[in-house]
Amino acid sequence: MSEASFYEAIGGHETFERLVAVFYAGVAGDEPLRALYPEEDLGPAADRLRMFLEQYWGGPTTYSQQRGHPRLRMRHVPYAVTPDMRDRWLLHMMDAVDAIGLDPQHDATLRDYLTRAAYSLVNAME
Questions:
Q1: Which keywords fit this entry according to its UniProt record (predicted)?
Q2: Which domain holds residue 73?
Q3: CA-to-CA distance for 84 and 74, rounded, in angstroms?
Q4: What are phi and psi of 18, to 5 degrees?
Q5: For the chain, what is the domain count?
């Protein structure tokens, strides 16, 4: 019997849906960070993030089927991701991780990945 993927172990689609919903609720109220999102409706951005995270953690490969290789750094080049924007992003994302209430091991694994990813996307200084 194979071991469950991280995606399955933390509750699958519903967990990622909640994570992303809480995250984007924070983004919507953060004027400087919100300015990095060109679309008036945050729904499409939320869908892309959810699909990316689901795929990364062993869920459906819908992201790549619809959008190709993630190429995170390349996709973020048009936006000035400063250390301040990174920290704002992490604040809302960590609040979202708090909201989904994972067990300590899964919580630490997710936080580590999200923190490393956020730091890797900084492409401009203040």
A1: Heme, Iron, Metal-binding, Transport
A2: 7-120
A3: 20
A4: -65, -45
A5: 1
Q: Which CATH number is 106's domain given?
A: 1.10.490.10
Asked whether the beta carbons of 76 and 123 are under 8 A apart, the reply is yes
**Tens of each residue's pLDDT in the chain, 126 residues:** 557 899 999 999 999 999 999 999 999 999 999 998 888 889 999 999 999 999 999 999 988 876 766 566 556 566 778 999 999 999 999 999 999 999 999 999 999 999 999 999 898 887
In whole angstroms, what is the distance from residue 115 CA to residue 104 CA? 16
Separate counts of helices (H) and strands (E) for the chain: 8, 0
Two tokens at 102?
């994972």
* CA-CA-CA-CA torsion sign (97, 13, 85, 26): negative
